[in-house]
Amino acid sequence: MANRRNTFYALIIFCLVLGLVSGRTFLFHLAYALGAVLIGSFLWSWTAVNWLSIARHTGARRAQVGRALDESFAVRNNSLLPKLWLEVRDHSTLPNHNASHVVPTLLPSRRYRWEAHTICSRRGEFTLGPMTIVSGDPFGLFQFPRQIAALSHIIVYPPTVPVYRFAAPLGTLSGGEAVRRRTHFVTTNASGVRDYQPGDSFNRIHWRSTARKDRMLVKEFELDPLADVWIFLDLSESTLVERPAARIGTENLYAPPPNLPPSTEEYGVTIAASLAQYFVEKGRALGFATYCPHREIVQPDRGPRQLTRILEILAVANSESPLTLDQVLGLEANHLSRGTTLVIVTASQDDRWVAEMHTLVRRGMRVVCVLIDPHSFGAPVLNGARLHERIEAAGATAYTIEQDDDLTAALSYRGSMKGRLR
Hints:
The chain is of the alpha/beta class.
């Protein structure tokens, strides 16, 4: 393109010099015509990227690894001149997101649409945009870029696998009292009725009381007398083991399970997300704690919104915490009450945390450990078998996960039996 302009400059100078020497007006007219072409091409290129509008619509601001993200785009020509061609370059950070497009000739007041369909392959928080619009003149002498600085953000949750039967959590002690606390969730404990309010679900209407009182009455519920479930995810720096392929580039690395990257971090995040989904679907009050590297605590609660809070933390979690698992248990486990079920997800081979776990068992907690075997990811063997034996000897349940394991089978009931037999 620059060479073409230089050719035009050289021709103009040549025609002017030759016209001065020969005195022929034709050469001057030719020089003026070439100059007019340059000026006209410059103005055409400038107007080509102006007087147009571009719209970008994202279907959802949240996605999940293995699922699709759909975006639609529309460019409208608001000028009186046609746009011969437009190149829209997208600078989004979402891996494999191919939203760039070449727009064909766009007549005045016409609109052109296209769509981008991307399978999310990596968890995290990403930006959509900015964009650059590039166009030029019919002779290819000039190109003008126009920056569209609009940005939006999308968060991609980690993948989850279905878990059909995990180690059963404890409830309260036999004969314990029900929790006398109202809840908007439907439980097995109905405590009474009240007047209907806008927004109440129809399935909560108590029809017998409604017919008797001649006004709409709905049932009120209390929380089930079941103890909380806590998931502790160990993301300390010392536990991170990954094969070199896990950090090379950003494309085609993250695939839906069971084809996870060869990294204990990704396995731990996926396991924690899957177990969180399992307990939420079971209607249990679930809490979550991790250091990634900052302290992240989600107090126990029920419902899909609780799962969303946990997935948002796991989407950006990294193994950068300087605290080891025994330190985390010493800091956080003191707040857990008797009867709580604690699920620990870790790849640590340091058995100092087992003593902290044994203390929790003696306090009346149910502890379930999901051990990610770092040896299967390339780490040297230290005390994996002895660690598993110590955990079970302390009265806890242990699951063992290796690289390329089917996580659904490993975390479900038959998978837990497999873990106990190792």
